[in-house]
Amino acid sequence: MEVIKQNQMVKNIPTRLLKNKFFTVLFLLATLTGLLVLAILLYRIFSQGIGYINWDFLTSFASRRPSDAGIKAAIYGTVWMMGVTAPIAFTLGVGTALYLEEYASKNLVTKIIQMNISNLAGVPSIVFGLLGLTLFVRGLGLDRSVLAGGLTMALLILPIIVVASQEAIRAVPKELKEASFGMGATKWQTIRRVVLPVAIPGILTGNILALSRAIGETAPLIMIGALTYIAFVPENLMSQFTVMPIQIFNWTGRPQEEFQFVAAAGIIVLLAMLLIMNSIAVLIRNKFQKRY
């Protein structure tokens, strides 16, 4: 019995090669389109805003005059908010992932919890803003503080961190864990000395993506009442604050044309901060990758 029809296979080769070329060109065009749009955006932002980047812009507060406007309060507010968001989201996210993967029973309840976490990763950010407004601002009485903003953004990125951490933990070879148990290690010793060191590059990658989203989000912070015009820096977790995306959003809504250029300068500073933060995380990730 002939399993493969040689004549039919030879006859189909030109069609398959043509399909292969078509999809190669299609995917190449998709890639080039994305790169072209990105290049246009970057050119427009840098051509408009680079002239406004100077020391005074970085060390001045917001002003109603474009020539005196600065981004100092927004930079401090962003750093304070990420200082709250990052440790809370990382601790809760990785802890949840470890429990679901290593300790929780594989039953219907666990499946429902995992399904809901995955669905939460796709919920619009404005919904988390409403949750933060109800729970932290009004429920716990935290008002428009750095702490309320950081907790809201932690909720926003928590599902992303949980899902990414679960994938990283799940990818650890079973042989490593079985070898650890075979040496007499307990479950926690195996997690601490085998699972986490191997999974940490994947966990950090998920955290990088999540924090990149948090630093650029505006809608949740507008919902909880972060200020758009502020002329001081936060002094503690209960201080009022603003962040760079809100400050940029405020500038783009001003009627004076020069504020559009100031907004472009703010975007450049935001991109620089994002690149610095991601570079540090990538360096940490690469360090662990070399070790294991």
Furnish the topology, listing elements before pairings.
Layout: H1 6-49, H2 55-59, H3 72-103, H4 108-120, H5 125-139, H6 146-170, H7 174-182, H8 187-216, H9 219-223, H10 244-252, H11 258-291
What would you note in describing this structure?
By secondary structure, the protein is mostly helical. Helix content is 76%, strand content 0%. It has eleven helices and no strands. It has helices at residues 6-49, 55-59, 72-103, 108-120, 125-139, 146-170, 174-182, 187-216, 219-223, 244-252, 258-291. The longest helix has 44 residues, at 6-49.
Write a short abstract of this structure.
By secondary structure, this protein is mainly α.
Oligomerization: single chain
Please trace the helix and strand order, writing H or E for each element.
HHHHHHHHHHH
Number of helices: 11
Tell me the Rg in angstroms.
24 Å
- Approximately how much beta-strand content do the residues carry? under 5%
Helix content: over 70%
> Spans with pLDDT under 50 lasting ≥5 residues?
none
Averaged pLDDT: 86
Beta strands, count: 0
Question: What is the rounded distance between the termini?
Answer: 50 Å
Short descriptors:
mainly alpha; 292 residues; 76% helix
